[in-house]
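Please fill in the sequence for the structure shown.

STRUCTURE ENCODING:
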């Protein structure tokens, strides 16, 4: 069974009034950096913070009275879990979400708060999925697949339908790819409405399952990524077939590019976006020649990033920009030397965050010491001024902070 434009238009009518029309915004500063005109479809604006509500709601609204009465079962460690829980509860449908045992407590708590019963089963997503299927069969419930279901795909495709209604003259659409439900639905809508448009998927480099499957290669995926939402080891059967027909290219982005995209969206566009949601921007920023001069639509698929991860990304971004630095400074181990160094730093307008005094465990002469100083600066030019000032004053200075 394939998915058609008519299916997506039917899904749009079905979910109309249940979900907000998410904004499609032009991003001038990001456009300037990318060398193309960037437009962002903000799927972060759904109640649960991700596009998954579209497919889950379309599926749930399609159920008959008996299916609603029986309830639904889903498997997810992330956005799909919350989407099913949210709308099943709102529609009066009992929902059970199976999550792997490693799922962070905050995600479990959030899903339960939306009205679902959460069961922690298995050490992997595959284990959890197998248990969810067994549970659905045993209790006579409907299993709601996170991506490989025509109704789910059609629901996700409404994002593409809306995007092209809001910005009809796009040259390319860039979509994050996990299991393929989002890009499958968007590609069907986009190619039907504008056959000449380019549809490009983006996977994280550790999980290139769709790209490998399309190339007929063995699927090999592993690694820790900040793009958990697209860290999928196997695309769906339906989604793979759609991608083979309608997706023009799959690009891969590494962890540094994903981090920088999350950072740019937060600091430039003032958007909180999860790693998977930032994948499209990461690809556009990394492939300047590929998108130069085009009008490019990027689906920002979700904003559910862990606060600790976000804080690390922001600080590491400041380090990359030279706005937070760690300097190792040599000085004579005599009274007043440290005061002189801190005065010089203050005189050039930097702010000292931390100071670590090294005497015993560094390879320095016995009458010398080294201090590691963490500073806030105005950027790389200011950093150069600081190091020049200290070195000229007789305090050899080495930059120790470098995030590649």
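FILLED IN BY: designer on duty
SEQUENCE:
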């Amino acid at each position: 069974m394939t998915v058609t434009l008519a299916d997506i238009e039917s899904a749009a009518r079905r979910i109309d009034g249940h979900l907000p029309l998410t904004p499609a915004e032009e991003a001038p500063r990001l456009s300037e950096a990318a060398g193309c005109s960037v437009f962002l479809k903000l799927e972060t604006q759904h109640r649960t913070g991700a596009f998954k509500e579209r497919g889950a709601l379309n599926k749930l609204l399609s159920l008959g009275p008996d299916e609603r009465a029986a309830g639904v079962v889903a498997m997810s460690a992330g956005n799909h879990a919350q989407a099913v829980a949210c709308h099943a509860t709102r529609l009066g449908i009992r929902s059970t979400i199976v999550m792997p045992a490693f799922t962070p407590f905050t995600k479990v708590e959030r899903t339960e708060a939306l009205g679902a019963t959460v069961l922690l089963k298995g050490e992997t997503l595959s284990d959890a999925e197998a248990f969810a299927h067994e549970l659905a069969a045993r209790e006579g419930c409907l299993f709601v697949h996170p991506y490989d279901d025509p109704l789910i795909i059609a629901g996700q495709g409404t994002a593409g339908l809306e995007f092209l209604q809001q910005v009809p003259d796009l040259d390319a659409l860039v979509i994050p790819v996990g299991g393929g439900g989002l890009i499958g639905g968007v590609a069907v809508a986009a190619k039907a409405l504008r056959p000449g448009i380019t549809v490009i998927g983006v996977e994280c480099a550790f999980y290139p399952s769709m790209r490998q499957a399309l190339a007929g290669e063995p699927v090999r995926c592993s690694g820790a990524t900040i793009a958990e939402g697209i860290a999928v080891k196997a695309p769906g059967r339906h989604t793979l077939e759609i991608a083979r027909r309608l997706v023009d290219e799959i690009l891969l982005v590494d962890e540094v590019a994903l981090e920088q995209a999350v950072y740019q969206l937060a600091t430039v566009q003032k958007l909180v976006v999860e790693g998977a949601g930032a994948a499209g921007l990461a690809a556009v920023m990394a492939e300047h020649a590929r998108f130069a001069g085009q009008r490019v639509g990027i689906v920002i698929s979700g904003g559910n990033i862990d606060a600790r991860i976000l804080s690390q990304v922001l600080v590491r971004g400041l380090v990359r920009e030279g706005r937070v630095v760690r300097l190792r400074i040599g000085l004579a181990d005599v009274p007043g030397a440290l005061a002189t160094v801190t005065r010089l730093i203050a005189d050039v307008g930097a702010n000292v965050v931390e100071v670590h005094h090294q005497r015993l465990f560094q390879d320095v002469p016995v009458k010398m010491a080294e201090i590691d100083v963490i500073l806030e600066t105005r950027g790389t030019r200011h950093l150069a001024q600081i190091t020049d000032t200290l070195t000229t004053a007789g305090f050899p200075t080495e930059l120790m902070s470098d995030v590649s």
